[in-house]
Write a structure and sequence with these properties.
With 279 residues, this protein is α/β, with parallel strands linked by helices. It folds into 2 domains: 79 residues, lambda repressor-like DNA-binding domains (434 Repressor (Amino-terminal Domain), Orthogonal Bundle); 180 residues, 2-Layer Sandwich (Endonuclease, Chain A), CATH 3.30.870. It is built from 12 helices and 6 strands. Strands 3-2-1-4-5-6 form a 6-stranded mixed sheet, with helices on both faces. The mean pLDDT is 89.
Length: 279
């Protein structure tokens, strides 16, 4: 194809939208003109959306969902449009979630809070409400954030579910979120998670000290073709990395973290002990 522009999905949520639109179109063998005819626009307009020269609209996103069979799914273009409109997700995260839905193995590490895939709705709502109270997001954005998380969790409940390994810094279970009732339910949810046949839960205790190799959120994905991706976050930015040279050190650090963390049995025992302190 002449003058085909290379896309960078990590550049922005809008770029991720366009790149995924192109990918799904090309997977079906459709031209831009053909997709445009289905969506009631021109092929030139499709090109502008795919390359980020124009922003998608809500009607466009809904028609794309109908044509590409993504309506009411965690990968819906309407959901992605809402995230673009409200700026509710960090850059790189929408693309990461798309890969997470296809991963054969998911490894999570988090400090300070239970990671999203393991949160109860009430726990997630308490975090979102706190962000509203601080003026970081609006109530509408908070509702969308929780709804997106529930869709993300539902997408992991597949006929052949992925292996999900979660290592939580002890601060995740020591930090009270939402009050005693919310924490009690969250503790039970973690216990139930650990009991599943396709999961593993470990707590990295405070006693690990300076031996803890990771200091912030790190997610590692292994896809069915055995390729490995890494996703990391700062307070203001997310980054999806596919380069083996930078992903492998994080894989090594994760394995070292597991080695110094509590076993799953000891981790669940700690959660039971903490739970005794909740009404």
């Amino acid at each position: 194809m002449v003058n085909r522009k290379e896309l960078n999905p990590e550049a922005s949520p809008q770029a991720a939208f366009g790149a995924r639109l192109r990918r799904l179109r090309e997977e079906r063998g459709w031209t831009q003109d053909h997709l445009g005819s289905l969506l009631g626009c021109t092929g030139r307009h499709i090109s502008a959306i795919e390359t980020g020269r124009k922003s998608p609209t809500l009607p466009f996103s809904r028609r794309a969902d109908v044509s590409l069979d993504t309506t009411n799914t965690a990968d819906s273009f309407e959901r992605e449009w809402r995230e673009i409109k409200h700026g509710n997700l960090l850059e790189g995260f929408p693309e990461y979630v798309g890969y997470e839905h296809r991963a054969a193995e998911i490894k999570l590490f988090e400090c300070g809070m239970v990671p999203g895939p393991l949160q109860t709705r009430e726990y997630a709502q308490a975090l979102a409400t706190g962000a509203v109270d601080r003026g970081v997001i609006t109530q509408e954005q908070a509702d969308e954030r929780v709804s997106f998380l529930m869709e993300r969790q539902a997408a992991l409940a597949r006929p052949l579910p992925p292996l999900v390994v979660a290592v939580l810094d002890e601060s995740c279970v020591r930090r009270a979120i939402g009050g005693p009732a919310v924490m009690d339910a969250q503790f039970q949810h973690l216990i139930d998670f650990a009991a599943q046949p396709n999961t593993m839960l470990q707590i990295a205790p405070y006693s690990v000290g300076e031996r803890r190799p990771l200091d912030r959120l790190v997610n590692l994905l292994t896809l069915p073709d055995r390729s490995v991706f890494a996703y990391v976050e700062s307070q203001t930015q997310g980054h999806l990395d596919r380069e083996l040279s930078s992903v492998l050190p994080l894989v090594r650090d994760y394995h070292q973290l597991q080695a110094v963390s509590l076993s799953q049995t000891a981790s669940v025992d700690l959660i039971h002990q903490l739970r005794k302190g909740t009404p």
